[in-house]
Amino acid sequence: MGFIHVLPDLLVNRIAAGEVIERPASVVKELVENSIDAEATRIDITIEEGGQRLIRITDDGMGMDVDDLTLSIVPHATSKIEREQDLFAIGTMGFRGEALASIASVSELRITSRRRDSDSGHEIRVTGAEVDGPKAVGSPIGTTIEVRDLFFNVPARRKFLRTAQTEFGHIVEQLARIALAHPRIEFRLTHNGREVHRLPATDSLRTRIADFYGAELAESLIAIEREQRGLTLSGLVAPPAHSRSTGRWEYAFVNGRFIRDKFVQHAVREAYRGLIDPNRFPVTFLKIRVEPSDVDVNVHPTKIEVRWRDSNAIHSLVLSAMRDTFLGRDLTSELKTDGRTDNDPESRRQQIRQAMADFFKNNAPPPAAEPTLYSGSTHTPTPTSPSLPRGGGTPQRSSVYSQEIAGGASRTVPPYEGDHASVPPYQGGIKGGGIPDPGRSTPAFAVNDLGRVQDDLHLAASAEHVLQVHNAYLVAETADGIVIIDQHALHERILYEQLRSDVSAGALESQRLLLPITINVSGDQMAVLESHADLLHQLGFEATAFGRSAVAIHACPSMLKDHQAEAFVRDMFEKLAAGTVDASPEAVLEDMLQMMACKAAIKAGDPLAPKEIESLLALREQADRTSNCPHGRPTTLRLTLSDLERQFKRT
Ligand code: ADP
Ligand code: MG
Fold first, then answer.
1. Which of 166, 248, 557, 598 is the most exposed place for a label (fewest CB within 10 A)?
2. Beta carbon of 436 within 6 Å of any ligand 1 atom
3. What's the Rg (C-alpha) of the chain?
């Protein structure tokens, strides 16, 4: 007697179910794909309790007769392929013949179906290994599949399920992936008796996007079209200003199937490189058509990954089509005409300035505070040779500091105090001031320049001793070397700490808006109003539904200025609805505080007035844990004199 035995069918199906049926959304995917393969023109999806209690899919497709009904729940029974060579040219969504058998093994399944050419329907019920039917019943043409009590017999999976709202979020995402690929099919989605999406049939992808995500996004989209070596690409992509906080908006489809593909993704990010913040993600809806024999979809049980016959051709198709389209348009004018003020650099700068001024006014460092970043007394003058080569070949001491000296700046009154308007000359001084490109291996710069200035002026530590370079970094001298500060990361960290302590003191300051901000939202985002009411309150938001597809914000945290509040609320609703943050309420709060700090913080690229730099550095001294931004990136790099000496081989 050996040890090996063949597993019983039920167990085999359970194992298969483990692969394809991860959560309610996977059931929805499999069933809706079956309806599409049955040539349905209309598909209704009814969900209760995030799909755990009930998933019901009704279609008007070709239906099944008694024999097919009996076979449909048998593993590896399919009407879609017959021979091995069919595997290399798959034209249907399904082909594995596993979904219904898998679903039947982990739920109470009921299928009712009637073929177009038949005048009665049949029904079959399956629970675990028990099959009841088929028996004749009255039924409209098409198929209705009901899945109740999903995972009732798989406690491990059931425990893994998140809240109904989160699971429903996954279902909505699943619907998006299918409905965007098939705009000619009408879809309806209902949750707990409330209609969340109604998507009428249309020939236009743009219309489908408008119905799903709102007209604002849809109207902004840029059309992409290209045919190259038998491959066709068509689709819509958002201008850079519509970037998002998550990568889930990078939709790509091949032959009507949603895919996640590293070649497509790489090409898309490459096309947007330099146009959007590297931490943000573009919005794309790209449809690729290839000969079915040029793509293998039989790579992954859920078919979300594919293998291309020629992945380079796909990459180049996507990249060249998008690049050429972007090059042929004036994207900056689109930025300006989308009605959002934060894209006009000048008004944006104004707003930042105002935000900074307000912020610092409320957080002014104590007047006596002696920032310890510099300590003139311990400064050791570093010998400088007059012939020391300078970066860019510009004259020595050409920075703004020498101008200040020439202008006879007072020792006690910093030259730019209270006058933010003097930023441009200051900037110019730095830009043209022979600061070497940090990427090049030019001699140490800041130490000598700053050191001389300090010696000459004996100024108290202040922004005059700090260089802002590339409008992104602050370079400052310390007792034993220099520090390079990432202005965005530092400010973000400071704001984050402040937010956290305010929230834990229950005192996040909120301000009422004169005019409410309204934001278009999808149905699942609308549900966030209820499901995250506490969180919204805690963060200082007052939000109400405004019609069926918009949310009105009446009050928002004072830290966010109007345009930031709008962008933040957009990201917040998207994140909460997507269920990407479905951890504990504390973790969600934490996540939101990080997002808020990031939004409110000065950005790389923002020029700072000396006063602003000074305040930022003073806050740095006060705040805890400023060495890393909330995302864990460092805010400050240090180089000691001995590091420098080593680098210059002085030792
Ligand atoms: P697959 O889709 O891979 O063939 P499934 O287990 O999902 O496997 O479905 C098995 C079979 O049941 C399908 O091949 C199809 O013939 C039939 N079927 C499933 N759903 C429907 C439906 N909504 N309408 C008509 N036939 C269906
Ligand atoms: Mg199927």
1. 248
2. no
3. 31
Ligand 1 atom index nearest CA of 100: 6
Is there an atom of ligand 1 within 6 Å of 528 CB?
no
Helix (H, G, I), strand (E, B) or coil at 111: strand
Which one of the ligands is nearest to 77 CA? 1
Instruction: Check whether the bond before 415 is cis (ω within 30° of 0).
Output: no
Query: For residue 216, what are the contacts with CB-CB under 8 A and spacing of at least 6?
Result: 520
Kindly report the length of the chain.
651
CB 187 within 8 A of CB 261: no
- List the 542-545 sheet strands across, edge first: 510-520, 550-557, 542-545
Query: pLDDT tens-digit profile of 149-184?
Result: 999 988 888 888 888 888 999 999 999 999 999 999
pTM over 0.85: no
Task: With beta carbons less than 8 A apart as the criterion, state whether 109 and 57 touch.
Answer: no
CB of 452 closer than 6 angstroms to any ligand 1 atom: no
- Asked if residues 576 and 615 have their Cβ atoms less than 8 Å apart, the reply is no
User: Which atom from ligand 1 is nearest to the alpha carbon of 99?
Assistant: 6
- Phi then psi for residue 43, to 5 deg, are -130, 125
Tokens of 602: 């000065």
Closest alpha carbon to 263 in 250, 278, 275: 250
Q: Are 294 and 341 in contact (CB under 8 A)?
A: no
β-bridge mates for residue 519, sequence order: 551
Distance CA(286)–CA(212), nearest Å, equals: 16
Three-class DSSP category at 303? coil
**Can you tell me the distance from the alpha carbon of 645 to that of 651, in angstroms, rounded to the nearest whole number?**
6
Give the position, in ligand 1's atom list, of the atom nearest the Cα of 93.
2
In short, whether 143's Cβ falls inside 6 Å of ligand 1 is: yes
Q: Are strands 295-296 and 108-114 parallel, antiparallel or unpaired?
A: unpaired
| Backbone phi, psi, residue 309, to 5° | -65, -40
Residue 13 beta carbon below 6 angstroms from any ligand 1 atom:
no
Residue 143 Cα to ligand 2 middle (Å): 13
**Distance from residue 579's CA to the centre of ligand 1 (Å):** 29
105 lines ligand 1 (CB under 6 A): no
Total Cβ atoms within 10 A of residue 642: 12
Ligand closest to Cα of 103 equals: 1
- Name the residue at shortest CA distance from atom 17 of ligand 1: 72
Distances (CA, A) of 623 to 491, 493, 634: 10, 9, 15
Highest mean predicted confidence (pLDDT) among 15-29, 245-259, 438-452, 623-637: 245-259
Quick: pLDDT tens for 96-133: 888 999 999 999 999 999 999 998 999 999 987 789 98
